[in-house]
Design brief:
11 strands; Arc Repressor Mutant, subunit A; single chain; alpha/beta; four-stranded mixed sheet; 2 domains; about 50% helix
Length: about 300
């Protein structure tokens, strides 16, 4: 059992986000796609339909995806993709396959999934106001037990995390089935994070399973022309001010685009006093390489 120790300061600094973005959900979805059984021990019809439609859309990439999930478990083996520019030596590849999978398994459903995650955050926020923060901790998952002042993660390897007044981040997920998941340091906030599955996630898939957009339209909605240009501008790491100069936009605009790219897992930001340095992650590099290949061949549909 993993034990997370809270102080009064930690309870006051507890935060909740509406998920970690499409790249993280892509890794969780890859894990769900390769799972032989759903957590409850039966085959959920919504997830079964999603798996079938995803397999069809993958086409000739289906073999690559199946090989990847047979060689390793996406969770936790591919979580390094969320926060490092280069992979660990022992981790092997996988970036390109994750992007190909994310494009057909997650992005077509993203608007509804994102709306569902935002609704989950708002719902739990209202509960915290009415019943208190501790009621939120006590209701996250059957595999999480609030035993004040400790949040116990059942069935997890034995260990302890002392928050020490830093607070913690709560992250709902639509595709994480075998949850909850604890990560010691979330990329953007630097806080320990508990990612927990939401029951309504499958229903977001049910209402959008047949609603698919061509990949060019999905990517345009997700990234946009200026953010695509920002990826090219960040082939060499730079500060927000330099990024604004390279793009010919305002400092506030450059900061906003860098934030969106960071939340999508394409950019990492390190701060020194008042200076923010932006660097492409391994997934950002992979996306940029695929975009360059697509531009040279005229194959826009294979950007991701």
């Amino acid at each position: 059992m993993l034990k997370i120790f809270f102080t009064l300061e930690d309870l006051a600094r507890l935060r909740m986000t509406s998920g970690l973005g499409p790249v993280a959900e892509g890794i969780f979805a890859l894990d769900a796609f390769g799972a032989r059984r759903d957590p409850a021990g039966y085959r959920d019809p919504v997830l079964a339909k999603w798996r079938r439609s995803t397999a069809l859309r993958l086409g000739d990439r289906l073999g690559d995806v199946r090989s990847l999930v047979q060689e390793r478990r996406p969770v936790p083996d591919l979580l390094w993709l969320l926060g490092r520019r280069s992979r660990p030596v022992a981790a092997g590849g996988g970036e390109d396959v994750v992007f190909a999978f994310c494009r057909v398994a997650v992005l077509p459903h993203w608007s509804r999934v994102q709306s569902t995650l935002e609704s989950e955050r708002e719902r739990r926020g209202r509960r915290a106001i009415v019943d208190g923060v501790e009621s939120v901790l006590a209701s996250l998952s059957p595999r999480l037990r609030w035993n004040p002042p400790v949040l116990e993660v059942l069935d997890a390897p034995d260990g302890e995390i002392g928050l020490g007044g830093r607070g913690m981040l709560l992250c709902p997920s639509a595709f994480l089935l075998d949850g909850p998941l604890v990560i010691p340091r979330e990329r953007e906030t630097g806080l320990p994070a508990v990612i927990f599955p939401i029951q309504s996630g499958a229903y977001a898939l049910a209402h959008s399973a047949d609603d698919w957009e061509p990949s060019e339209q999905v990517l345009a909605a997700l990234i946009g022309a200026t953010r695509s240009a920002a990826l090219f501008a960040l082939t060499e790491s730079c500060t927000t001010g330099v990024l604004a100069q390279r793009l010919g936009i305002s400092l506030a605009g450059a900061s906003k685009h860098a934030t969106v790219l960071r939340k999508a897992g394409l950019v990492t930001t390190t701060r020194t006093r008042n200076t923010a340095l932006h660097t492409l992650t391994s997934l950002g590099v992979a996306l940029l390489q695929r975009e360059l290949v697509g531009a040279s061949t005229g194959d826009v549909a294979r950007v991701v």
